[in-house]
Amino acid sequence: MFSNRYIFIYSSVMVIVVAIALAIAAIQLKPFQENNKRVEKMQNILTSVNIESTVKNAEELYKKYITETYVVSSKGEKIENVKAFDIDLYYELKKKADERQLPVYIAKLDNGDTAFVLALRGKGLWGPIWGYMAFKTDMNTIIGSMFDHKGETPGLGAEIDGKAFQSQFQNKVIFDESGKFTSIQTVKGGAKEGDMHGVDAISGGTITSKGLEKMLFDCLTDYQGFLNKNKK
Amino acid sequence: MSDTNQIKKREPLFSAQNIKLLKGPFNDNNPITVQVLGICSALAVTVQMKPAIVMALSVMIVTAFSNLIISIMRNGIPPSIRIIVQLVVIAALVIIVDQLLKAFVYDVSKKLSVFVGLIITNCILMGRLEAFAMANKPWQSFLDGIGNGLGYGLILVVVSFFRELLGYGKILGYQVIPDSFYQAGYVNNGMMILPPMALITVGTIIWIQRSKNRDLIEK
């Protein structure tokens, strides 16, 4: 039989050995993991301006197309000394609206256009959804969009990360003719032809679609100061 | 005198007995279809083939090495805390595998999400450690772990093959159902993507297996 002393020493040694092994593994692999997240973010931003990238060429393409980044307040004023790429909207959205720091990425596209990429984050059905949306210099017309989610229902709500859904946003506008902010609606049963502010919602993914609509409205409302100031 | 000179004959590495350890889980001792263990993750990660294969490999690595480690330690483990020791070994291995996936196959690791972490609670692991590794030598235990991991993986791959083929029209991400089919009115079956169809697919495999081998049918 084993004595109590043996059992105590046995378990203590085991726990310490395992802890050291795991700590070493975590520290050694951290740079790779952080790089993966960085590359993914770059790919997401590139997708929003309709540039396809792979894990390998994302960094290069990002450097080529994204010429400038800065951070704005909800009033649209530039905030110095903060890197746009390091901002995590998860923390920003927890702050009061007027204290939020919002990233803006500026891309020079192949056709000579300039795109302003804004970051979005909201709630889907099961968890967070997020994305990026790129606007023309009029701060009104959408060039492209990218959405992703943590765990929406496969085949239903999860379709927001598909091209079919995302490409609908191209050339839609977020202000109506009188200049009032209308955002983009996800329309159940399909948006009418010529609807400049609506896209088809996802059948079977109503709550995700509505969550996405709310995300667009809320996040673009935060950017109002910036959008109004820079309208051309 | 002659006793001390007698050299114990070593069992060859791949003796018939050992091969049986590897092959058993493929058929009459399959962890999913016969022992009905590890069903939860089998339903969850079989929407597409690539995550299913990565999941199968992860489980195989964890079953093989946890079996090996526990088997090496088996004579020193105090029986009163043996379950805790087993869990610590499994958990440590799973965390290492999870970290490796996050570092090197990030896209797959995102799809598998919590299910890699949940390997810790996969009954196949605890089952094999308790039933086999605690009482057998390291090499046999290692083979048993590989065998069970492969048996689990086999079912995952078969199920994900049908789900991806019928649900997305793809295999391993490549389109296999030609466009002309879609133009002729063929539609991907959205049901296949949802978990209930995984259960039905696994059920069908169990049905086929039991109708072939009637010994498996419970009285």
Termini gap of chain A: 83 Å
What profile does the largest beta sheet of chain A have? 6 strands, antiparallel
Multimeric status of the protein: heterodimer
Strand order of the largest sheet of chain A: 2-1-3-4-5-6
Number of domains of chain B: 1
Q: List unreliable stretches of 5+ residues of chain A.
A: none
From the N-terminal CA to the C-terminal CA of chain B, the straight-line distance is 55 Å
Shape of chain B: globular
Helicity level of chain A:
25-40%
H/E element sequence of chain A: HHEEHEEEEHEEHH
User: Strand fraction band of chain A?
Assistant: 15-25%
Low-confidence stretches of chain B: 1-6
Helical residue percent of chain B? 55-70%
Number of strands of chain B: 2
What proportion strand of chain B? under 5%
What is the alpha-carbon Rg of chain B in Å?
Answer: 20 Å
Please indicate the count of domains of chain A.
Answer: 1
Along the chain, the helix and strand elements of chain B come as HHHHHHHHHEEHH
Largest interface: A-B, 24 and 26 residues
- How many helices of chain A? The count is 6
How does this model look, in words?
The complex is a heterodimer of chains A (232) and B (219). Chain A has 232 residues and is α+β, with helices and mostly antiparallel strands. Chain A has one domain (45-230). Chain A is 37% helix and 21% strand. Chain A contains six helices and eight strands; from the N terminus they run ααββαββββαββαα. Chain A has helices at 4-48, 58-65, 89-92, 163-166, 206-222, 224-230, and strands at 66-72, 78-79, 102-108, 114-123, 128-135, 142-149, 185-187, 198-200. In chain A, strand 4 (114-123) and strand 5 (128-135) form a beta hairpin. In chain A, helix 1 packs across helix 2 (58-65). The longest helix of chain A is centred in the N-terminal third of the chain and has 45 residues, at 4-48. Chain A is elongated. With 219 residues, chain B is mainly α. Chain B has one domain (47-212). Chain B is built from eleven helices and two strands. Chain B has helices at residues 2-5, 16-23, 39-44, 49-73, 82-104, 106-112, 114-117, 123-133, 138-168, 179-183, 195-212, and strands at residues 170-171, 174-175. In chain B, strands 1-2 form a two-stranded antiparallel ribbon. In chain B, strand 1 and strand 2 (174-175) form a beta hairpin. Chain B is globular and about 65 Å long. Residues 1-6 of chain B have low confidence and may be disordered. Chain A binds chain B through residues 2, 6-7, 10-11, 14-15, 18, 21-22, 25-26, 29, 32-33, 36-37, 40, 55, 150-151, 153-155, and chain B through 47, 76-81, 84-85, 88-89, 92, 95-96, 99-100, 102-104, 106-107, 113, 167, 190, 193-194.
